[in-house]
Write a structure and sequence with these properties.
This protein is mostly helical. Helix content is 43%, strand content 7%. α1 packs parallel to α3. The radius of gyration is 17 Å and the shape is elongated.
Length: 107
């Protein structure tokens, strides 16, 4: 069941979630569970947000007189680290930001 099932009309979705886990370090010190958690939240979270927003927007009621149409807008944001990089050793976080930028933003 979608979290949007209780909403009547869904016209906007803003995805802006991400973590920089305190145990995220360099490639040698970061545990796989920290890497996986960061990927789940920072990358897959955007996918989940988009998926269910699209499904909800496709089900929007239409009424020309009220200006209601199927569809809407999805805004995905990322940290500036996605483009500029970071001087910190947080490997998983920096990788997800960069992957997000290249796949979603199109850098």
């Amino acid at each position: 069941r979608s979290p949007f099932d209780t909403l009547t009309i869904r016209t906007r979705q803003f995805n802006n979630a991400g973590i920089m886990h305190p145990a995220d370090d360099n490639a040698l010190n970061t545990e796989e569970r920290i890497w996986d958690l960061t990927m789940q939240i920072n990358l897959k979270g955007v996918w989940w947000g988009c998926k269910y927003a699209i499904l909800a927007m496709r089900n929007n009621p239409t009424d020309e007189a009220k200006g209601l149409h199927v569809g809407g807008s999805i805004i995905n944001t990322a940290s500036f680290v996605a483009i500029m990089g970071a001087a910190t050793p947080q490997l998983a976080c920096t990788c997800t930001f960069t992957a997000f930028a290249s796949r979603v933003i199109g850098c």
